[in-house]
Model the fold of this input.
Amino acid sequence: MDMVGVFWSSACVILYVYLGYPLLIAAWARLGGKPVRKATGGAATWPSISIVVAARNEASRLPARLANLLALPYPGHRDIVVVSDGSSDDSVTAVNEFARAHDLDTDVLRVIEVPSGGKPRALNAGVGAARGEILVFADARQQFGEQTLVELASNFGDELVGGVTGELILDCEKAATTDSSVGDGVGLYWKYEKWLRRNESAVWSTLGATGAIYALRRRLWQPLPPETLLDDVLAPMTAVLQGYRIVFEERAVAYDRTSQDAAAESRRKTRTLAGNYQILVQQPRLLVPFRNPVWLQYLSHKVGRLLVPWTLVGALLSSVWLASSSWFYAAALTVQVGFYGLAGLGAVMEWRTRRKPGAFEGISVPLSKGAR
Amino acid sequence: MEHINKLARVAFTFMMMNYAAVAGLVALRRGQNVWR
Done:
């Protein structure tokens, strides 16, 4: 392939992933969306739910989190399983003391201790102890909105719904935070990502869930391999490959804080994208058109994101090569150089922010795995 | 100037998020523990 081919194939991939596909899925959702038939019946028809909270060293957050989960209205039966993943603090004691103080028996709240082995093992243990028809996954850090359980569960009135992902609302979506170098970008990115999910859900299914807030039919759960990086993509996509849909319920909400630190955000994103590579190995059927009901969406959204960095390099190098031969490629190079210059300025701002004494004290909270 | 700053932050985050795919692949190939 010559340099003109490199430029145009790179440009087409970038434009398709960030512009063409979003427009396509939005039009598809509008013209051929499949509504969910939600449950509207009385208390007897609501499925039992088990809320699984995998936690490591979360003693300080667990009491408030448990109070939040128990205060949420839900007409059916609910129980909570907290899995302490090798905690070295007082997480287990905190849960037991909470249960004693609120007179809760093990039908309502249980804590399981497992040796430190990573979140997939903790989730496998939690699901093994769960009794509800519906599993609701939650982290210790966030708080759920009041109607979250009802809104999540109502979608299971539709037999084709295998799972429901809620909406994670980050503080940076509302207003830029002082000293935040990545909050603006992350807020914008996350809004865009949720808009895509909403449309993918309307067409048939999202391509995963938000780890901080999602629900799954227990019978569709398959134990996670211990090395799994993205449990909240693998578990839902396994249900999708069985013919079920995962829907996005924006009235089920969890609140979280953005990472204020670009390094923390970068580590989180690296883990997420490493997980996207890993899932292609764990579930190669995702790449087979007739095995994956959301093949086009998966290729466009998930695989496309893995390709974009390589095509950014391709577009830049080919522009440099071709710039002297045509004003068009010179202009393309100028635009790219301008963009990288802006990104460089952003990097300098991040570096300066980090140098401020105490700039991140108390606010460098790792972002939820959900924001991917 | 505020608009430029905001654009710079968004551009930086965009680059960081995209090149995380490369970092992710490298980390996975090296067998680094990236999950926690």
Notes: The helical segments of chain B are 2-30.
